[in-house]
Amino acid sequence: MDFKAEYKDKLRTADEAVKTVKSGDWVDYSVGLAFPQLLDAALAKRKDELEDVKIRGHLIMQPIQAVECDPEREHFIYNSWHCSGYERKLCDRGLCNYIPMIYRNVGPYYTKYLDVNVAMMAVPPMDDHGYFNFSVNNSIARETLDKADIIILEINEALPRVYGGFDELIHISEVDMIVEGAHDPLPTLASPAATDVDQAIAKIVVEQLVDGSTIQLGIGGMPNAIGQMIAKSDLKDLGMHTEMLVDAYLDMYKAGRITNKKKTINRYKGMFGFAIGSQDLYDWANENPGVVTAPISYINDPDVIKQHDNFVSINNCIAVDLYGQICAESGGTRHISGTGGQLDFLTGAFQSKGGKAFICMTSSFTDKQGNLQSRFKPTFSDGSIVTDPRSQAFYLVTEYGIANLAGRSAWERTEMLIGLAHPQHRDELIKAAEAQKIWRNSNKR
User: Fold this and answer.
1) In the annotation, is 74 catalytic?
2) Computed over its alpha carbons, how large is the radius of gyration of the chain?
């Protein structure tokens, strides 16, 4: 077959391609670096011709023109599976709605329940065999494209090609239209500098790890700080199995900590679902047989995770109540990020032989008025969303120590949690626990 001729036959301008979108359609923009910048700009130009076009995406790093051009949301309604910093600001402006999910289930949501009228995705150039690679944006790509009535691919030559075991590509024969054009440099995400408190928490977690552990790091400064401390440790033969590939893995690899040789499954392969980080990270993933992508429905499956002995899940959160409920996605009713894969990895790590699941947070924070506020709450009466139920709260870490809540009664976990709080807030929390009848008279004050 002449794939180049088929490619040429399907080539369109962005303006021509978006004419397939109709009022009332569901349009998918994919994840992160797969954001179709040219198609989005062309769709925004059609604003006055369309109404009630619903768009899905997540972790998009740059401005979405279809959103920015329509502040009244009369034409385009944007929805996110997991908010980047930019999408969080859209939520604050009332221009983005979060879609509740558990990440491992999002692919099956498409397969079983959702409609996709038009799917748009940025990909690297086609190879000689007629395939387009999903690059660092595997995530839910295959399930989304399989459900789409119309598939439009936008070629971004800056995207790396990433190897995968399955479902990391799509063939030209499955594609309806292709768009080419100039792109901005790939968005990058800098790793924030670790604070002294971050370092204290990282030290506690790293002391819990053993040689040969397989590591998952969540999104945020805290997991990155822990990854960087692992890179400076003397741990050996660590493995990688993570939904999000971040720069801390590159730090660990360069330091000789990651070899993947002790992994129980997928030996010598560091597995991930999508990547956002530095250009160096994207270069590391490019055609690297040791850095392999797979769909989130596989990466985040607890039945897959648990097959790794000594699996370690490291994530962060925003707040914890005295019952052990964990909030990692909102500040009260203000949406921050999303559930993501945190609950997936808590579940899988618990089931792993020798596995441990850590949720990390600073004990307190300083508000805009300069007041020190506790991250431990008597209850989530402010509307904070429970990401992890109290029944799946395991290791919790602050700068004041570590507690394993598994199997602990209400009064036991209350005592343990208050011991992790900032000393300034402990008496107030004890009074709340007494009022809630979850504090024993024998508990030490």
Assistant:
1) no
2) 23
How many other C-beta atoms lie within 10 A of the C-beta of residue 389? Answer: 13
Per-residue pLDDT reduced to its tens digit, 15-71: 999 999 999 999 999 999 999 999 999 999 999 999 999 999 999 999 999 999 999
Number of neighbours of residue 359 by Cβ within 10 angstroms: 26
Ranges of beta strands (E only) in 246-363 are 270-275, 291-293, 311-316, 319-321, 326-327, 330-331, 334-335, 356-360
Q: Please, are residues 241 and 214 in contact by the beta-carbon 8 Å criterion?
A: yes
Tens-digit pLDDT profile for residues 263-272: 999 999 999 9
- Confirm if 247 and 278 have CB atoms less than 8 A apart: yes
Residue 31 and residue 138: Cα distance in Å, rounded? Answer: 8
Could you tell me which residues are beta bridge partners of residue 335?
330
Q: How confident is the model at residue 227 (pLDDT cuts 50, 70, 90)?
A: confident
Q: Which of 243, 329, 399, 415 is catalytic?
A: 243
N-terminal to C-terminal alpha carbon distance within the chain: 77
Give the C-alpha separation, 155 to 295, whole Å.
21
What residues does 316 pair with on adjacent strands?
A: 360
